[in-house]
Amino acid sequence: MKKSFILYVALLFLFGCKWEIPAEEKTLKSCQKPTGILATPDAINPKKFSFSLVGALAEVASVSWKVSTGNTTLVQAANANAQAYGYTVATDGTYVVTADVTTTCQDKTTLSVTYTVNTQLPVASSFSLTDPMVHSRLTAVAVANDGTLMAVENSEIKVWNPTTRTLIRTLKADVNPINTVALSPSEAYLVAADNTGKIYVWDWKSGTLTRTLTGHTNAVYKVRVSTDGKYIASLSADKTIRVWDTSTWQSIRTIAFSDNSSIPNAFAVNSSGNYVAGCFYSGNTYYFVMWNFQTGSEVWRQTISYPYGLEFSPDGQQLYLNYYGTSYKYQLWNTATKQLTKEVEGDYLLSLSLDGRYILSNYSWLDTQTFSRSWSKTLLGFSPNYIAISANNQYAARSSYGYVEVLQTSNGTPLSSTFSKHPTLVTSASFSKDNRILAILDYAGLVKTWDMTTGQMLASQTTQNYYTGGNGVALTPDSKYLIISGCSNLYRILNSTDGSLVKTIASSNCSNETVISPDGSFL
Questions:
Q1: Which domain of life is it from (predicted)?
Q2: How many other β-carbons are positioned within 10 Å of the β-carbon of residue 501?
Q3: What pLDDT does 125 receive?
C-alpha cells in the first residue's frame, strides 16, 4: 500500500506539472541581413541619387527609408518593402539616408549613408578657348629674319615668337584700326598706317614709337618700303600717293590720282627706277598706272584683268603682276619697253622676295626664273589674305580668317603648330546637363569639346567648311553625342569625347540652331 502511494505521487508530479526549457537552451532560426547602403548619383541630374541595400537581401521582409539633413527629417517611412529608393534634393548640402530593415525572422537593423550634393563644379581656374595667336581682325603681317612675327589686330601690332607662341610686345599708338604694316629691309624700323591717314614708324625691337608721319587726310590702305630702305610709299583713300624720304622722314612727292578706286594689295615702289605703281578700276575696267615719283609724272598706263598683286624687281626693270582672268596668272612686264615678256599659270596674291629670286603666293613658294613650285600648302583649308617674306628669304608669314602662321620657306613647315583652338567667330555653344562638358562651334565649322573641371580639350573636329559654315551645336542629355547644324543640308552627329562622326541626318534647308528635347528623343 505504501509503495503504491509513492508511485502515485511520482506520476502525479511528473504529468501534472508544466516544464519550461531554459531560454538560453532554445534553438532559434537565424536570418542574414543587409550590410550597408549604396548611393549612386544620377548620370544627368546631379541632385538626384538612387539608394540600394547591399549584402544579403533574400530574407529582407520590409524596409522603411528616411532622408534627413542635420536635425531636420525630410522624408519619413518612405517606400515600405522596397530594397531601393530614389530621392532628388532641392538644394546643395549634406544628407543622411537611413533604412530601417526587418527580416523574415523579425530581426531589425538600421543602416545609413551620408552623401553630399555639390552642383557648383570646380571649374578650371583659367583656360583659354581661343589661341593667343588667333586674331579677331587681322589685317596685315610682317616677318623678321629670325622668324619673329608682327601681326595686326585692330589698333594693335602684336610681336610674337612663333616657335614658343608667346607674345613679346604690343605696339599701339592710337585707338584707330591699323590697315597695313611693312618692315624695312634692314629691320631697323616697322611702318604702319591707320584709318585716319597717320603713318607710324616703330623701333619694333624696343617697342618705341619713333615718329608719326602726317599728310594724308583719309585712311592709308597700303605702305611699301623700297628695297634699299630709302623710301616709303603710301596709298590713301584721299586719292593720293605719297613718297617719303627715310633720311629726313619728309614727304618728297604727292601724286594725286583721279581714278575711282584703288586696289590696296596691288601697290609697289622701286628706288632704282624712281617708280611707284598702283592698280585701279573703273566700272569693269582694270589697269595699272606707273609714275616717276621724282617728277610726279605718269609714265605708263596698262589695261589688265582683275589684279591681286604688283611688285617691282630690285633693279626696277621688271614689273610682276598677279591677276585673275579665267584663272590666276603671273605676268612679267618690261618697264622700259612696256611689253609683256612672260605669262604663266599662278596662284592668288604675290609677294616678291627682297632679292627678286622668289615669289610667295597664298599657297606656294615659287622660283622667279622657272615659276616652279617648291611647295604648296593651304592654311587649314582657307586661302590666306595677307602674306610676307623675311628679308633673308628664310621665313614666310601668312594669315587667313584670323589664323596666322610662320613657315620655313625651305620646305613650307610651320615653326610651330599653326592652330589649336578657335580661329573664327564662335556661332554656338552648349553645356552638358551636368555642366561638366562645354561644346563650342565656330563659323568655319570647327567644333571642340572641353572638360570644364580641368580646362582640357577633349575633342576637335572640322565638321563643315567655310562656305557651308557651322551654325548650331547641342549636346545630348547623356553628353555622349554632339549634334551640329549648318548650311550643308545635313545634321552631323559626333562622339563628344573623340569627335568621330557617328551618323548624318538629311536636312531640307540651312539650319541656324540646334535644340534637343530634355529626354534626348527629339531634335
A1: Bacteria
A2: 12
A3: 58
